[in-house]
Amino acid sequence: MRECTDIRLKILLISRRKEVLEALQTLLKRRPGLTIARKLVVNGHVDPLHEVTELPDAMVLHLGETWRAELEALAATPADRRPPLIVIGSAPDAPAMRLAMQAGARDLLPLPLVEADLFAALERIARDQQALAPAASAAVTVFINAKGGCGGTFLACNVADALTSRLHKRAVLLDLDVQFGTIPLYFDLFPARGLLQALENHTQLDEAALGGYLHRRGKLAILGHATQDRLPLEGISADAVDTLLKLCARSYEHILIDLPRQLDPLACRVIEQAEHVVLVVQQSVTVLRDAAKVMTCLQRDLLVDPGRILTVVNRHDRRSSISLEHVRSALACSEPILVPNDYRTVEESVATGQPLLAHARGAAVTRAVGALAERLDGGPNNVRRSLLSRTFSKVVKPRAS
Ligand SMILES: Nc1ncnc2c1ncn2[C@@H]1O[C@H](COP(=O)(O)OP(=O)(O)O)[C@@H](O)[C@H]1O
Ligand SMILES: [Mg+2]
Questions:
Q1: Can you tell me the distance from the alpha carbon of 57 to that of 106, in angstroms, rounded to the nearest whole number?
Q2: Which of 82, 157, 173, 317 has a CB 3.0–4.6 Å from the CB of 186, allowing a cystine?
Q3: What is the residue-level pLDDT of the chain in tens, covering all 401 positions?
Q4: Which atom of ligand 1 is least distant from the CA of 339?
Q5: How far apart are CA 250 and CA 388, in angstroms?
Q6: 80: Cβ below 6 Å to ligand 1?
Q7: Could you give the angle at the alpha carbon of 274 between the alpha carbons of 340 and 146, nearest 5°?
Q8: Distance (Å, whole) CA 85 – CA 106
Q9: Could you say which architecture CATH assigns to the domain 139-377?
Q10: Does CATH number 3.40.50.2300 belong to domain 9-132?
Q11: Where are the domains of the chain?
């Protein structure tokens, strides 16, 4: 039987139907620790938070006929004026999912409601609240490649190394390419345990326990795949990743995340928390086509401010028939950052597991990666948004089966 954990939350139930509010209240009353308020929407207002003066810890919104307007109103509300949201409604289609995501929905529970799913969603919110308690500040940067082989992992590793070895920052590098992550190889590491084991035990994870899964290279901590890991076929839990990020934010100034190209709910959730998204492209028609799709998704669906997206043209070749002007117009981006092509230096660095700074300090490719690290560090005048001050609104997760 599932263990019943204690949840202490103030919950606001919102619906246009009285009987739904009553049923939900009766259900939730069974769990001690929950304080429940109800809001019956009867007038023409579509904003679920209209006249709500004190924000609850969690809001459960039952979608009615005016669901679109309700979600749009929430999506337009600043994230810090929006409590964690659980949406209840009939099976959503893709546009509804996207809108719920933009409204900051943590979970979307279809009807008929599965009781255990509702309690599990509330437990997650309660857990997150507890984890948020201590002060934390870290700049999160995610690296996404527009196509496999563009150099996302190579840049994530070497930027992380430059931040620690040259700029003397405390940084942690996380490999969220769960199936084919290669980060340890870039540092000549062969870990016995790593990311998957840490996430499996995330409910017991604290800073000390996390240390047992990290591998260190100077000031850089690395959480990648264990050498003997099998290819995982199941996804990893977004909540577990949240816990990991919050723990890392307590100890490190920079969190660098290597993402696989697939923009799934987990990737979306991580991107939401990022200060910078580094999109790595190369000068090729097929890469630019995919990069344009990723760019649109980032800005339109995930509402990432264009100023937070850094486009890197890796293996830049000024003689290429695809010019920088082509890149700028295909991606509608500002000035891309250029990293030169240097096959020999990079190959040797990867083959020996020595980051560029250790292997070829003065090479042009090393200097370009160093400049990217400086840019991400922001310089002395940069006021970073801490992990805490950013929104923790979450994307909709598929219901656990
Ligand atoms: N600037 C560069 N110059 C030369 N070779 C590079 C450069 N960047 C990456 N590479 C090569 O491309 C390979 C693939 O890069 P990788 O980071 O694994 O791609 P991704 O993570 O985007 O799939 C690297 O192992 C390296 O050999
Ligand atoms: Mg990669």
A1: 13
A2: 157
A3: 344 456 788 999 999 999 999 999 999 998 888 899 999 988 777 888 888 888 899 999 999 888 889 999 999 988 878 899 999 988 667 788 888 888 889 999 998 899 999 999 999 888 777 665 544 579 999 999 999 999 999 999 999 999 999 999 999 999 999 888 899 999 999 999 999 999 988 888 888 889 899 999 888 999 999 988 888 777 788 888 988 998 999 889 999 999 998 888 889 889 989 999 999 999 999 999 999 999 999 999 888 999 999 999 999 999 999 999 999 999 999 899 999 999 999 999 999 999 999 999 999 999 999 999 999 998 544 444 444 434 333 333 333 33
A4: 1
A5: 10
A6: no
A7: 40
A8: 6
A9: 3-Layer(aba) Sandwich (3.40)
A10: yes
A11: 9-132, 139-377
3-state secondary structure of 120: helix
| Tokens encoding 225 | 């795949």
Distance 362 CA to ligand 1 centre (A): 19
In the chain, % helix, strand, coil (3-state, to 5) comes to 40, 20, 40
- Structure tokens belonging to residue 281: 């492209």
**Which atom from ligand 1 is nearest to the alpha carbon of 347?**
27
User: What ligand is nearest to the CA atom of residue 290?
Assistant: 1
Which ligand 1 atom is at minimum distance from the Cα of 182? 18
Inter-residue contact 184 to 227 (CB < 8 Å): yes
Q: 139-377: same fold as 9-132?
A: yes
